[in-house]
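Archive maintenance. Older records in this collection stored only the sequence; we are now back-filling the structure field for every entry so that each record is complete. The fields below show one back-filled record exactly as it appears after the update. Entries are processed alphabetically, and Succinate-acetate/proton symporter SatP is next in the queue.

ARCHIVE ENTRY
Title: Succinate-acetate/proton symporter SatP
Organism field: Allobranchiibius huperziae
Length field: 200
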Amino acid sequence: MATNDPTPVITPGSHLADPAPLGLAAFALTTAVLSAVNAGWVPASVLPVVFGLTLAYGGIAQFAAGMWEFARGNTFGATAFGSYGAFWLSYWWLTAHSGLDKIPAKDASKGVGLYLLVWGIFTVMMTIATSRIALGLFAVFVLLSITFLLLAWGNFATSDSIVKAGGYVGLATAVGAWYMALAGVLSFTHKRSMLPIGPR
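Back-filled structure field:
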């Protein structure tokens, strides 16, 4: 029997708020603090300050944003936030709990260099995908790729100056990610686009 009251079709994840600003903000803040250390703005002795951020905000909060992107059907957002959330969790373990400080410094530096290099390769892959999303996000990923590759190079070469350069590019990356996070939040609170993020 036909009915004039069909069951409404609900888009999966449509009831969820956009998790991208949370993921971007978590990434930006954690990156900014670590990059300030790498750039030499603060002494390396304060590195333990970063550990709580890498676990709670860069790690758990960003990973959660990735899982919410899965629920919204956003493959790119889920892959990016899920992966970089896991990156921060693994960085927290690597630097604070793995015993890295107990092996020869030169070997540890090369191990960290390899770790950063493969993340740099992954980021270059993701950068290709961002070229179809928004210019602002593309810029963030280009900067992040350069950051990872400079830090990897600096660790392989045990060069403080190259690591410092990576820190400065990392700070620029954080600013770009904060901008994109703010653009997303303002779009929600004002119900219209407030900050330009470039063509999609």
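Update note: The mean pLDDT is 90. The longest helix spans residues 160-190.
Entry marked complete.
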